[in-house]
Design brief:
Oligomer: single chain
Largest sheet: none
Radius of gyration: 21 Å
Distance between the termini: 33 Å
Strand content: under 5%
Number of helices: 9
């Protein structure tokens, strides 16, 4: 839930270096200035055409300043990806105080995910581009994907224990299919812009229905509180 650790290149051990964290407020402000500039340049020029000098020009800083905080163009890019993925993981996590059925919770996650992808569509395209030739980024991309898939898988397994989902389906493979469907749907329609006028609520309702049918979901048996199905302790 809200206390889980978001996945990053560093905590997923992809081999991507961790950038230095400034100790002063001025240093933190300069670092953020470089990150903001780098993202803007990456989105405008693409990853391959972006140079450190371009980032410094955008930030209005001397080239030497860059190397105080980041060793390479790759490092600042990994840092941006870490931040974007951490935000996505937290944004799509259902709050502890959320009220609604398990179907409402799934729809909430989809709605948040689609909105986040659409909001960051240009940067998402760059990340997909880099993952095709950069091994660090590829490993990062796959491990983060596994993290999201495991979250879906654990949800399916919980519903199976409750007797709310078909016990004969593979939770792992079903989660893989669902994540593949959602990721590709979002990438094609929102990141690449296949359907600029897509109705998000209609898309959420449609994919939620597909998820529900794939699980053979019995809403009457589904609960977000597993304790409901545990035997109550007798009072002495």
């Amino acid at each position: 839930m809200g206390t889980s650790t978001p996945p990053t290149a560093e905590n997923l051990e992809t081999g991507a270096p961790a950038s230095a964290q400034p100790r002063t407020a001025r240093g933190r402000k300069t670092r953020e200035r470089l990150l903001t500039a780098a993202r803007a340049v990456f989105e405008t020029n693409g990853y391959l055409e972006t140079r450190v000098t371009d980032i410094c020009d955008e930030a209005g800083l001397a080239n030497g300043t860059f190397y105080i905080y980041f060793q390479t163009k790759e490092e600042i890019f990994y840092t941006l990806v870490d931040s974007a993925i951490s935000d996505r993981y937290l944004i799509t996590e259902v709050p502890d105080d959320f009220e609604g059925t398990v179907v409402d919770r799934f729809a909430y996650t989809l709605r948040q995910y689609f909105a986040e992808v659409k909001r960051n569509r240009r940067f998402s395209r760059i990340v997909e581009q880099v993952a095709t030739f950069d091994e660090h980024m590829r490993d990062n991309r796959m491990q983060i994907r596994r993290k999201f898939r495991q979250r879906v898988q654990h949800g399916i397994e919980r519903l199976q224990r409750q007797g709310a989902a078909d016990p004969n389906i593979s939770a792992e493979l079903t989660a893989e299919a669902i994540v593949s469907m959602i990721n590709n749907f979002a990438y094609i329609n929102l990141s690449l812009g296949e359907r600029e006028d897509m109705n998000i609520e209609q898309a959420v309702a449609t994919l939620t229905s597909i998820w529900q049918r794939a699980l053979g979901l019995d809403i009457d048996e589904a609960t977000t509180d597993e304790n409901r199905h545990k035997p109550k302790k007798r009072r002495n």
